[in-house]
Fold this sequence. Notes:
single chain; alpha/beta; Dihydrodipicolinate Reductase, domain 2; four-stranded mixed sheet; 8 helices
Amino acid sequence: MIEIDGSYLEGGGQILRTACALSAVTKKPCRVFNIRKGREKTGLMPQHLLGIRALSQLCNGKLEGDFLGSEEIRFYPDEIQTKDLKIKIETAGSIALVLQTLILPSLFAHSTSSGQISPVKITFEGGATDTFFSPTMDYFQYVFLKILEKTDIQVKINILKRGCYPEGGAQVKVSIEPWRRDKSLLKPSLRLVERGNLKEILVISGASESLRDKKIAERQIAGVREVLGKLKLPIEEKVEYYETECPGSQITLAAEFENTLIGADALGKLGKRAEDVGKEAGLELLQEQKSGACLDKYSADQILPYMALARGKSQVSVSEITKHSQTNAWVIEKFLDGKFKTEGNLIKWTPL
């Protein structure tokens, strides 16, 4: 059994998500203890609990210690099979973070008894598409998943209803295409070192319908223009309003280069000017752009498991090697035969 100390370095929920996902892929049971010891409120929160329960269902596994507030779980995975999963989140828990647990194992799902390979389908009732301490769903779709597409990973997300903090109430359908059995690994090596020329920056600004009269979405874009407008960059703007259980807003910036994407996002907050929300996202993207790297600091740690499952040596250039990245690398090395190494802003994976 693989032993994982959840208090290591970053000490958050990512340790649990990565450990359980790789446990399912490798069929190696794991014990995760000191769960979220680095957080003010320790132990399993609803999105963590629901994520690992859905994963256990996906791989016909067995869970021990799966209750709210639990600081230790044991996970015994079995065969991953294509299924339709329904996940009900009563809180404003992040849907994107639950998907971080489920996407990777879904790629290894075996076909049903009919022999046909069908997608893993996940229906979310409740939860948040846009909440704090998590990527917005637009960032997840238009930055991270677009990067995964370069490794032949196909994930489709249909947002039927947005969910914001603190009420949640989202409705989202997700479809994940498993790899064929003769494609049990990624294509040979994952290399994202030179990002190439900038093609376009997509700016998606959204807010609850109740905020339309205040032109919150348009004002968020005005804040982005204040930061990026003088640079005369190719920008496409998109304004959205939608019905939600409670007021909220978000803005996502996705900069598409010839070989990769980098992004930034920000959430509206009571008492915070909409223009300042846009400026915050614009300044963050500008900082990421100046690094010259292929991946922003948020995508960097999320891509590591996919690097490690590629054939051969992989390497990516990142804007910053964060504690999240260091922590994820440490967890991955517990399950897979290989080693991560950093050189400047490069993260390299070498299989053993």
